[in-house]
Amino acid sequence: MIDNTVLLAFFTTSVILALSPGPDNLFVMAQSAQKGRMAGLFVTLGLATGLIGHTVAVAFGLAAIIRASTLAFTALKFSGAAYLLYLAWQAFRAGAATVKKDDVQAFSRGNLYRRGIIMNLTNPKVSLFFLAFLPQFADPRRGSMMLQFFQLGGIFIMATIFVFGLISFIAGGVGEKFSSSPLAQKIVNRIASAVFVGLALKLALSER
Q: Closest by alpha carbon to 188, among 15, 18, 36?
């Protein structure tokens, strides 16, 4: 198994990376501000579940297929971009509707959870990142590389939940302050829509 010192260094690095502005944490921030803290937390859990898929892909070598196949990479990134544009349209249409505490339940926590999964799994850059990042902390001399990848993936997921949970709490609190104002809520929805469009363009224009 991996040495504890290496695991601590990996966890610290993972926290720093999770704090760096990127599609996933911006997605959590936008959803939390728009629909509240619980919405952000369920999106976070969905994103974390998506990371399990990427961990499995790296452990079994599936991410190498995406790296080698231009068609697979292109198909996946445009699927993700299309989904983000769909979310942008939904946010734009929300207009000045105010957010109430019961809205998360009405919207369905399952839908929020699935949003996070789709957002994460349709971003091929995450698989490529895992493919490049995880092996740096694994050592063939310490046993099965597959088990080490799963261990590192689990720690990365823990760091992600910690950081994104914090983002959900902060962004959700800011969103709640504006929830009683139709105008402010309209502005929040428009900002969320713009964020989703920006993320979609960034993903669509990304290269391997």
A: 36
Positive or negative torsion for Cα 40, 189, 172, 18 = positive
Residue 93 belongs to a domain: yes
**Would 21 be classed as within a structural domain?**
no
The verdict on residue 26 lying in a domain is no
Provide the number of structural domains found in the chain.
1
Which pLDDT tens digit goes with each residue over 52-92? 999 998 888 766 776 777 887 788 778 878 877 887 887 78
Tell me, yes or no, if the pTM score tops 0.70: yes
Residue for token pair 């694994």: 138
Mean pLDDT of the chain: 80
In 95-144, alpha helices (H): 103-107, 109-121, 124-133
Rounded CA-CA distance 112/103 in Å is: 12
